Amino acid sequence: MEGSELHPEDLADLGERRLERDGQLRSQISAEIVGLYKRHHGKGPVRCRTYLEPNVVLVVLGEGYTAAEQTLFEAGKWYEVREARQQWQDSMQVRFVEAIERLTDRKVTAFLSANHQSPDLAVEMFVLEGEPAEQ
């Protein structure tokens, strides 16, 4: 069929549109997760980057420990801070998952969360069901 072939410039255009759409989605996810931290933890991370893979959303947040948590670290209470932070993240699961499902328009099948003291990092990972919609 004539006219139905894709040309290299068409493929480049499709790739650019996908990258632009992914960039907007990454920004929206980062803003939403940082906002949830600010509203429910009292302090938002200073840095945030979201990575998108076909079935995974990975949000890496930096410099998010509160002054109280830093004071506890200085007193050698890393385990207690880590445990409290993990309990907080577990209790935030519903809010985090709702945000990701709303923004990606896909169901989250697994949520994993982790923290690291030095460097000051938190990671929120979401595994998505199905395949992304083609746009």
Structure in a nutshell:
This protein is an alpha+beta fold and 135 residues long. Helices cover 50% and strands 23% of the residues.
Number of helices: 4
Q: Report the radius of gyration as a whole number of Å.
A: 19 Å
Can you tell me the number of structural domains?
1
- Care to count the β-strands? 4
Strand order of the largest sheet: 1-2-4-3
On the 0-100 scale, what is the average pLDDT? 87
Give unreliable regions as ranges: 10-16
Structure report:
This protein has 4 helices and 4 strands. With 135 residues, the protein is an alpha+beta fold. A hairpin with a 2-residue loop joins strand 1 and strand 2. The longest helix is centred in the first third of the chain and has 34 residues. About 5% of the residues have low confidence. It has one domain. Helix 1 runs antiparallel to helix 4. A 4-stranded antiparallel β-sheet has the order 1-2-4-3, with helices on one face.
Write the layout of secondary structure elements.
Blueprint: H1 8-41, E1 47-53, E2 56-62, H2 67-74, H3 78-91, H4 93-104, E3 108-116, E4 121-128
Antiparallel strand pairs: 1-2, 2-4, 3-4
Helix pairs in contact: 1-4
What are the salient characteristics of this protein?
50% helix, 4-stranded antiparallel sheet, 135 residues, 4 helices, alpha+beta
